[in-house]
Every structure is written in C-alpha cells, then in structure tokens.
C-alpha cells in the first residue's frame, strides 16, 4: 500500500488493520529471534544521533508500513538498549511475554477508557478480579481483597502508587490536625528505599526537610531497623512534628534487602502512621510459598504494591496497588462532576447489585488504560504453577552465579543474595601502599568494559562507600548458558584489568 491521501484515509479499515498488525507481529517475531545478536546496550550513547537521521518535519502524506519498519530496523534498533536480550542483567527485569503482548494487543485494540463504571463495566470488574487473584497468590491478608473490605487497582508504576498512598495518608492526618499542619508531617524510609518516595513526598506537599532517611548497616543485611525508626519518630514527636508515613521494602533496588514488615508495622501502629510495603521487584517471588514469609506482618500495613511488569511476564506498564481502606484512597483522589456520574445501576427485577467501582478515584489521572486484560492473559496462559517455576528458575541461576563469585578469590559478594539479584565486586590484590590504587576505580573499569563489549549489560550501586556491580537475573529469554557466559566475560575482563596494573 502506498501513500494515503487524506480524502481516502480510513484509520480502522479492518483489512488494513489486519495487514499492518501482521507486519508488526512478523517484525517483532524476527526481532526476538535475533535479539541476542544486537549489542545489549546501545552502542552509540551520543545524544542527537537519531535526530540527525530523521527528517526535520513530519511527512505530508502517509507512507507504507514496510517503509516505516525499514526505518525502525535501520535507524531505531541500533540506538536501543535491548531490555529483552537474554544477556540483559541491569536494573531489574522488565518482562515481556507472548501472553502479555496478546493481552496488550487486545487492550490497545479495544481501546476502552474505564474511568467510571458505565464507561466499561467489564473492564472495571476484570481489574477487580485480577487484583484479587494476585493478592491471594502473593499471600496478602484478606483485608486487602474486595471481599475483606479492601481492594486493588492497576497503576502505571510504583511512582504513581506512592503518590496516591502519600496523598491518602496526608489527608487522613490533616483531617485530625487541620490543613495548616502540613508542615509538621514527616515521612520515614531507609537509605535503601527507592528515591521515588522522596519525589512523591515533595509532590504531595511534604517539606523536603521532613523526609527522614534512616541509615542501614551490613549487620542487618541493610534492612531498616525498627529501633532506628522508633528513635527517629520519638525525636520528631518531642519536637512537635507528626509522623505520617513509613515505607517498608521487600527487595530494595540496590541490594535486594528485605525490611522487617511486622516490626515496622508495630512502630507505625503505635504512632498512627500509614505503613506502605513496596514489593515492586520481589513481590513477584511471593507467589512461591518459600518467599511469603518476607511479607509477614502485612496485616499491619495500609497499602502494598508490586509490579507485574518487572518479573511477572506482564508487558509495561502494570503496577498492583492494594489498600486496606479504599475509602481513604478515594477521599484523597475522588472528583464528582455531573458529567462523570454513573447512571443508576439496578439488577434484574430492580434488585440492587454489588457496588460499582469508579477507578478514576483510585489514581491520579482521569483517563486510564485497560491494563487488566494483559495481566489476566498472563495468569490464564501460564497459570500460577508455571509462574512459580519461572521465578524459581531465575533464582536458581542467581544462586549459581553467587556460588561462582564466592569460589573465585579475586571477587567478593558484597551483600547476601536476595531473590535473583547478586551484588559483587572485584578485590584488588595486595600491593605496597605507595602503589595501591582505588578498588572502586578497578570495579568501575570492569563494569564499563563488560558493558562496552555489547555481550552483556549490568548496572551498579554504591554501599558503605563501595562501588558494587549488580547482576539481576530475570529476563524472559535468559537461560543458564547466558549466566555462565556473563560470568566468563567478567572473569576474562577482570584478568585483563589486573594484568595491566
């Protein structure tokens, strides 16, 4: 098909839709077939590369799909970091799957906007079903299910979930002390907590000076100690401040640390704080019974979040947020203009039905995507048993890598492995003090050289002043051979660096 003059443009012509969609599916199938042939990280990191390749203005007339895909292949793919590469070990995994893609296609193709019940009742109801399914799978208490008085919603990201829960906690507290008391509210987290909580606190009006970053230590496995939180809270109360919100994390970004949810929950209860459990990455592992103990004490929490788009084969974007009190969330986020009110819903014969859910009151934006479709497809297509096997396979790969690091005296594991994340570094051999170079420098060089090779991609963290290399296993296409290959690459690269010193 050639150019499309405006007077013949039919954007949803079924035949054109089928042909263009088939071309995209074929393109992606070829991409996944060959993704391991691309350098994992974008080879050219110089800003402005793509702008130089593309025209300065949009085309006047439409172009054939084949020509557009040729440009994607030639100009776009070389500038991508390939997150679905089997040798991608950076950040945390961002999973994709055939089932997730199929659900996403249906979601995008149907293109409904379920912000209020009548806007698409089945979309809202399916969302309620899948968040209840997920809550049960990860072992959350009944109070987070709709049947237990709580409920869940699919947000786009943890960042959105954090802002929503902070707003709910803020309004609940200000209802007690008055709105003029906002400058007294204090949020607590550890030095391992994701920085999105600091960003979220600013967005809801908490003064940056009222965000407490509490130090963790190697002795606790870098977990947030309840005693340290209590001491910080009591000091703030003595100075007339009001404890507002406490974050506990299951699987911190840097090291995979796990905070003691029950102990922190008891502190939060004593001081009337909102307790949020951030399980963005490791919450997926909680579908396995052996990891559900990490959520012990969740009945003391006000909210819990986890991201199926990280390690649960659900294509971006999809974050489960559960709250024990939907009313508290809705009070902070709801709007009720006449044009958004539902028509009265009645059952057969005029009998009342279950309460309708207006998910616009559970999130920041009004418009929302039909995310439930792709999570439902993943759960239906692979099943709980299949997903448990998937998680355990990645953990087994990380266990192997940890053993390999420990067996090589040139390296050290910096923190105990949690889930499928291994944090390690290269030791410097003993040298005279006059010749001793910085351990951090050699580890920076090691990571840079591995990533520059294009054969793998990892990221870093800094803990106790040490530069640490992170290997996060979790790709949908990653197999044991890829983990062995990256370890051999690390060893070879380290040997070359040490020989030059």
UniProtKB/TrEMBL annotation:
Set out the biological process GO terms recorded for this chain's protein. amino acid metabolic process; carboxylic acid metabolic process
Keyword field:
Decarboxylase, Lyase, Pyridoxal phosphate
Source species of the chain: Oryza meyeriana var. granulata
Which cofactors does this protein require?
A: pyridoxal 5'-phosphate
- The entry's protein name is Tyrosine decarboxylase
Family recorded in the similarity comment: Belongs to the group II decarboxylase family.
Which terms in the GO cellular component ontology are assigned?
cytoplasm
* Molecular functions (GO terms): carboxy-lyase activity; pyridoxal phosphate binding
Record PTM N6-(pyridoxal phosphate)lysine, positions in chain = 310
Recorded hits in InterPro entries, A to Z, give: Aromatic_deC (IPR010977), PyrdxlP-dep_de-COase (IPR002129), PyrdxlP-dep_Trfase (IPR015424), PyrdxlP-dep_Trfase_major (IPR015421), PyrdxlP-dep_Trfase_small (IPR015422)
- A Pfam family annotated for this chain is Pyridoxal_deC
